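Readers of this paper often ask what the protein records in our data store actually look like. This encoding replaces a full spatial description with a residue-level series of whole-number codes. For reference, a complete record is included directly beneath this paragraph.
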Amino acid sequence: MQVVASLSLKGGVGKTTVALGLAGAAQQHGLRTLVVDLDPQANATIALDVGPTSATVADVLDEPRLSVLRAAIAPSAWGEGLDVMVGAEQAERHNHPEPGPAQVGRLRRALQRLDRLDADSVDGLDDEAPDPYRLVVVDCPPSLGQLTRSALAAADRAVLVTDPTMFAVSGVQRAFDAVQTERQRSNPDLQPLGVLINRVRPRNAEHDFRIAELRELFGPLVLPGVLPDRSAIQQAQGACMPIQRWDTPGAREASTVFTLLLGRVLRSERPRRTPRVATAPPAPN
């Protein structure tokens, strides 16, 4: 199970768009995926058109037991193979500015329990269980409190989302610093997957300047595919449909970028560690 956080420390740059686009690409390619909506605005939950549940991600962060996890996860109306750990404004109560290690680790513990449950199902303990999640996409809030730190403590990779404007460039630098800090604090396996530039307009001098600035700052971390500023992205979200099924030239252009992003995610996946099997010492001569 690969966990990817969609991260920005500036609002309005499209981190939810990236989380939804990546989830849609994974679904299109047959990878069972879970979206964890950590943003108290719950925009990802709304766009994924999830039905009512008896628990939310806020309850999971209160007590990450399996029964609570099951109650907080529901299928998306986008179709088979895509589930959601539903967001709620009550998650804001977990967004402390200076959380302790136990608070930061709750999402990681919940996902580890979910991963173990999936592994047990694959081993035949529950023949009717679905395939395990191949990908978990975490949509973070645009602030560096407990919620975002929880996502980084649980993630294998972080996509740093920005748009080509002055303030957003500053925000992606802070996001990069947050990844490096959390890596030192609690999650040595965490790595930045790359910087994804959103809402790019062709032949715009300011956008060209900021993109060049980002490439100078982050080098090969800046992903080669950029997301164009297309109304199709907002239209698909408003219709609660994946961009991959919105049949316009702008949607196809964006869908290609998300497919490339998915490929980068899968190439970065670490092999699952297998337990070492103890062997008996050789018999004496």
Observations:
- Residues 95 and 146 are 5 Å apart (CA to CA).
